[in-house]
Amino acid sequence: MKSEALRILKEYYGYDNFREGQEKIIDAILEKRNVLGIMTTGAGKSVCYQIPALIFEGLTIVISPLISLMKDQVDSLRLIGIEASYLNSTLTSDEYNKILFRIKRGKIKLLYISPERLENKFFLNFIKTVKISMVVVDEAHCVSQWGENFRRSYLRIADFVKYLGGENQIQTLAFTATATPKIKVDIIEKLNIVNPFVYVDYFNRDNIYFKVVDNSGLDKNLDIDSKPFIIDYLRKHKGKSGIIYCSTRKNVDDIYNYLVGFNRSVTKYHGGMTKEERDKNQKLFLDDDVEIMVATNAFGMGINKSNIRYVIHANIPADLESYYQEAGRAGRDGGPAEAILIYNEKDRDIQRYLMEKEAKGKKDKNYLNKRLKNFNKMLEYVELKTCYREYILKYFGEKMIRNYCGYCENCKKEKNIKDFSLEAKKIISGVGRAKESLGISTLANMLMGKADTKMLNKGLDKISTFGIMKENKQEWIESFINYMISEKYLVQSAGSFPVLKLGEKYKDILNGNIKVIRKEDEKIDFDYYENDLFKELNSLRKEISKQENIAPYIIFSDMTLIEMAEKKPRNRWDMLKIKGIGNQKFKSYGERFLERINNYCMEERL
Which cofactor is essential here (predicted)? Predict the structure, then answer.
């Protein structure tokens, strides 16, 4: 059966070998053992049960918490030629009955359902007549009352498995990306998983750069403190997909409106919106029609979008489990990614208020104490002077070989610290000479000496600061101006057309009493997105996704496109050597991508 598993992996998924964790879990499943797999986001959990489901006789039932996750998984499976379906509230009665008919005839290998489906007597009576090979519980941490995503409906699963098997126990598999040792024990007990093979993957996501931005001690106002950093970051990462998490609906709306004002490609998601609005906005983000999602933590569970390059928390989360799970939505494809947490003492007070408010409706008298205890761990994290990654891994019961990772802000903090006082003086002089009348972009253009019509009409080419920063790039100047705003060296006026004013400390900088010391940001390598052939292939992927109404990353991941752009396969055999391209994917899309690659190579004479 092991050789059959490898054949399926290559034929359908386009990979030659399993990852270490996948291989161990699949071996245990093929030996008919129950399994608990705790595997970090992007480690390939779904492959662990999908491949055995194709080998075993009968139907595999996958219990999943979200309709969007079910659809995503089923779309991905159908695309590579695997018979799968789901039962949920989006189906018409005719569609529902057709799926049951196909299940009865043995035409479907994987069936995705929500835990609430287990309350449906008609479904229970029907499924009892079907040969079941396995029951898989996805997002298994939802069964634990110790976790923040507890779903009471998950508590019915153990009885459901017993109902299906009678005296013969049905093989049970449970998977989750985030579980402390306490939650791990709770999952096994609540799901009644007998003698399981337990595999705990390394929690380390070494492709994610962790960073904390401390805004405490400034104005403690989200509108002033977080937004300049966010817009500055987005300017540097234009064209990249990312999520900005906020603790309240109001903050989501504020940041969303702010970004719309800067013409960013953005949408939003929170519980105050209608289901239709949420579904529409989620699809826009998943389909790469917008770059940025601003959301509360209502968004994200089961989101398989693989090309998210950054996750920014504009407010401190309630606990480290939630933070690491949300941050882990970046870089699922294995490419470089960033997780940034913006911390403000005001947000700490808001979180405590929300916890106290929520605790009032709970029967558990220790609920608030448990929440506050978890929150204190989060506060410890933001105040760390040592390695962020080491702290996270230790929290989840994992040790690092070294006490520093070399790839988080604290491990890099001694690098790239520079004195930018001269640049600050030039910018302050520019604001003053222009009589505090310019916005950020216009000031940057003036300092660079760009003699466009706007400059000439305003006579800005005549003032002494025109062109004094021509050696700097516009992006860097605008970024530094935003930094000066956040440090109160400059002030940005309110209104539709904000202009820059001199701040309280500008004279101290000009007189040399204050030095402007700044750490240059660690540069995360996203250069492959600028590759011309990658852009061509990405454009083709987008065309196909629109034609077939599926998310682009389901067709091919960014990492697969990047490998195509690097290796430039010119025929079927070369294309099948690319990771993520099996025979089924090639049949569906291979020729179209080969044509685009060959045309590019001819035009470039490669």
Answer: Mg(2+); Zn(2+)
